[in-house]
Amino acid sequence: MQKMPQWADVLLIPLVSLILAAFFSAVVILAIGENPWEALKIMVEGALGSTYGWGYTLYYATNFIFTGLAVAVANHAKMFNIGGEGQAVMGGLGVALVCLYIPFPHWTLALLAAAATAAVFGAAWAAIPALLQAKRGSHIVITTIMFNFIAASLLNYFLIGPLKADGMEPATARFPEAARLPTFQDMFSSPDNPLFRGAPANVAFFVAILACIAVWLLIWRSRLGYEIRSFGWSEPAARYAGISPVRIIMLTMLISGGLAGMMAINNVMGEAERLVLNSAEGAGFIGIAVALMGRSHPLGVFLAAVLFGFLYQGGAELSLWTGIPRDMVVVIQALVILFTGALDNMVRMPLERVFSTLRRAPKPDSKSTTARTAE
Amino acid sequence: MTLTTKLFSAAAGIALSAGAALAEPAIIYDLGGKFDKSFNESAFNGASRWAEETGESFAEVELQSEAQREQALRRFAEQGLNPIVTTGFSFASVLEQVAPDYPDTTFMIVDSVVDQPNVRSVVFDEHTGSYLVGVMAAMASESHTVGFVGGMDIPLIRKFACGYAQGVKATDPEAEVLANMVGTTPAAWADPVRGSELAQAQISQGADVIFAAAGASGIGVLQTVADEGVMGIGVDSNQNYLHPDNMLTSMVKRVDNSVYDAFSAGESLEPGVVTMGISDEGVGAAIDEYNEGRVTDEMRTALDEARAGIEDGSIEVHDYASDETCDAISF
After folding, report:
1. Between chains, do A322 and B89 touch, taking CB under 8 Å as contact?
2. Residue in A153, A281, A325 closest to B66 by CB
3. What is the ipTM of this complex?
4. Are A274 and B93 inside 8 Å of each other by CB?
5. Structural domains of chain B, with CATH
6. Domain CATH number, residue A117
7. For residue B38, is pLDDT > 80?
8. Among A343, A370, B221, B327, which is 20 to 30 Å from A66 by CA?
9. Distance between B156 CA and the closest CA of chain A, angstroms
């Protein structure tokens, strides 16, 4: 029997955590002499009040969906992939190579090729730590985080060397017009009804939704997903059942790395349309918070990614139009991560207690029905 | 400035048609942040100097992500802010695309050239400024070994290193120049511990003058230099005051002047490429009350000669950025 109904687990806990985070953010904003209510209004209006705001919110969310899914898939095998950043960087490199050197007739082909290459590059970058974990027992947390640095150095080598365009900036040339992904503005806007003006959200968002569905099918509707979950719950039991740990570790990490790498079709191909040094911008790390908050479920990851997209875009509006410094915006984002991810039990345990007292109160027969529906 | 006043002024700006007197200037800092003790802070100082002198206000924003470059540019331009100053070469590609959409707004970019009719591009001759401090370093060094600690390994920093090495070699052909970069990610601009480590390594190899061109990482370099009792050279802003007993000089790059000039010109800011070099004191070796005791008369003479030589063309300082090679030093 669960300690509390599922809806409380999925909805109530994140909600209470968010309210707590919002409360403490308000205190911090008050302390620096700004009006928290005004700040909240700017954030909500800036991020959700117009199609323009949504265009940015969903752009950031797309990045976080990919990296969040990457962490979530690995989590199901109880592996902690904190190399999403490096894998996304390598995915970007793959996208850049494909877009710069292959003349595509149409963006659909470019998108398919770029997504595949990004996934292969990301997966390849996850493969080495995975192999070290599977064969040598080198801890995946250490190796993946080290690989982030190697990826950054490698990217730097390419951008000040072989791939650098003319000029001072360490960046590639702009991708050709044929590799340009349609943005929401191209797709939904008309001269009479301009929508998503100038916003970077693009067709990669729909690829991200497809990825959510694919991950759900993989984890809960496929034999491999079952093996990944059983391996995650108990490695000795999985081994006893004939599941090869090496195979599961490798496959899980390849899928995870591939998902992180695919983020590049959004930020590199969809937004920047060229590869810059700072392309991944910590999205790989935000992915960890997104997966934690989303309970490693694709729907949860999607919602958490949109929340973080909101925080990013709302934060940008805050620093554009108020005296709240950007470091304070980071503090607000950190508070949300702290309360939803790290301090989960602080909310969970009191709530569990509330639910168990509520459950004890009714008569015995009604108790059994609530318990059954809860499961 | 609150949102409401912003919106009011924007609405008023639209009502009074373009070019109304209400337009205030704006500045967009790069990801390093406005208090980086170096490049962005210098721009901020120029902007605040203008605000203090005129009593007017300006809009500003510190970026958090790459996607915000275009966002901030467009939002400020749509609010009627003019001119809009961006600090750093990373804006070049975005500005190239955004500028044509707002022909009535004048943009300015520092450290890169954007070829658009409404963009003013301000570039600095960092190589000649670095040459000057290289001359001083070679004369001050007793071990004939000098060091260079760069921030992130990018062409701009190699331009500093290359000019510096040429100045050293021109003064003392026997001298050895040790060069290290703090790192290869943007974190390299803010890693004083690693900067200190590199300075330590160079000192143990005999370097007794070290030039730090590494943003906030340079603070660590100069601290170690002071702790070990050798001499340091600061960068961008005049950093001589940091360690009055151990600073040889600072290679100043007057980003603040370029921002101040742009804000003063206001809407009549002239587009085009502006190169700030030795002759207009855009770059140079800082001499003030903290280091004048260490600058000998021979150094002053050598500096004057080098300055004159660069101005009349008899000394040619190779610019790394022109062909991405450097004979004086290998990376």
Report:
1. no
2. A281
3. 0.76
4. yes
5. 3-124+256-276 (3.40.50.2300), 126-253+293-323 (3.40.50.2300)
6. 1.10.3470
7. no
8. A343
9. 6
